[in-house]
Design goal:
7-stranded antiparallel sheet; 3-stranded antiparallel sheet; DUF4402
């Protein structure tokens, strides 16, 4: 054996005898912790990303009343009820039951509204069910309403909305001026 080798072997045996199991566990734990800290501290595993935040503000939907729903002048039948209807279109065409006499054609019209909103978006039309009868303060006549559309496509200009309806006139309906108010709501989809 070479003289230097023997002294190294002697030194290793001496170190091995001096280490107890407890000391060996401590050395192993400390070494493992140093390795873990060393690996976790490197910037090689970190990553960063960015994102933008945006918001688009739209003009509010607006609705403006242009004309009222007008059934014109009606003379009831003495024996049977009848229905008068107004079409939900620009013409506001009136259809009068055969047993009724309808006059005042010049005043007949569908209700019309102009709706404006952001170009290219759709608007829902709601709220037509609120009016169920016309009244003269004492007497009533049932009414149902219908719109020209439940969805309007906005074009950047005013889009028309028409409301028509059907009015049930009883036999011998008392004379008077019958009226009622309804609302129409519009909002973006």
């Amino acid at each position: 054996m070479v003289r230097g080798t023997r002294s190294v072997q002697f030194y290793i045996r001496k170190v091995e005898k001096g280490l107890s199991m407890k000391n060996l566990k401590t050395v192993f734990a400390a070494g493992s912790a140093m390795i873990a800290l060393g690996l976790g501290a490197t910037g090689a595993h970190a990553a960063t990303a960015t994102a933008d935040a945006t918001a688009e503000i739209l003009q509010q939907v607006q609705i403006a009343q242009v004309s009222d729903l007008n059934f014109g002048t009606i003379v009831p039948d003495t024996a049977a009820s009848g229905v008068v209807s107004i079409a939900a279109n620009a013409a506001g065409t009136r259809n009068c039951a055969a047993n009724l006499t309808c006059a005042g054609a010049a005043s007949v019209s569908s209700a019309s509204f102009n709706v404006t909103g952001a170009n290219g978006l759709n608007v829902d039309v709601t709220g037509l069910g609120g009016l169920t009868q016309l009244s003269d303060g004492t007497n009533n006549m049932p009414i149902t309403l219908g719109g020209s559309s439940t969805v309007l496509a906005m074009t950047g200009s005013a889009v028309p909305l028409y409301v028509g309806g059907s009015l049930s006139v009883a036999a011998n309906q008392p004379a008077g001026v019958y009226s009622g108010t309804f609302s129409v709501s519009v909002d973006y989809q």
